[in-house]
Design brief:
mainly alpha, elongated, 122 residues
């Protein structure tokens, strides 16, 4: 129970957890994408990537799960960032498509948490 109160009372801890997750999301997906490029030729063949992401029912399930959940979460990100008048949202939008959703979603949560702290202080 004490650890729950620590997290509840220290909003900065959540923001740093989100930041660590964003870094992990960028690093781990980049490693996988780099390995894909090494295994399947120079560059990044998006058609081959999509084909492999749907190569079997398990991969297809994960791909569809990510597509649907990321789409819903992305719509929420756009709406929430407008409500909170967040700055630097271009990082999130660009990061979603150039890095990975596993990077941009926790980065958004980091920026959102920091914005809520900022609003609370004013």
């Amino acid at each position: 129970m004490d650890s729950f109160n620590l997290l509840k009372n220290n909003k900065y801890i959540y923001s740093y957890i989100y930041l660590i997750l964003a870094i992990c999301g960028a690093v781990f997906t980049s490693i996988s994408n780099f390995n894909f490029a090494l295994d399947y030729g120079p560059g990044f063949d998006i058609n081959k990537f999509i084909s492999l992401a749907n190569a079997n029912p398990a991969a297809e399930s994960i791909s569809r799960d990510l597509l649907i959940s990321a789409s819903a979460f992305f719509l929420w990100i756009v709406n929430e960032s407008r409500k909170l008048q967040m700055r630097n949202m271009w990082l999130i939008y660009l990061g979603t498509f150039l890095v990975a959703f596993a990077f941009s979603a926790p980065l958004f949560l980091f920026l959102r948490e920091r914005r809520l702290i900022e609003i609370e202080k004013s």
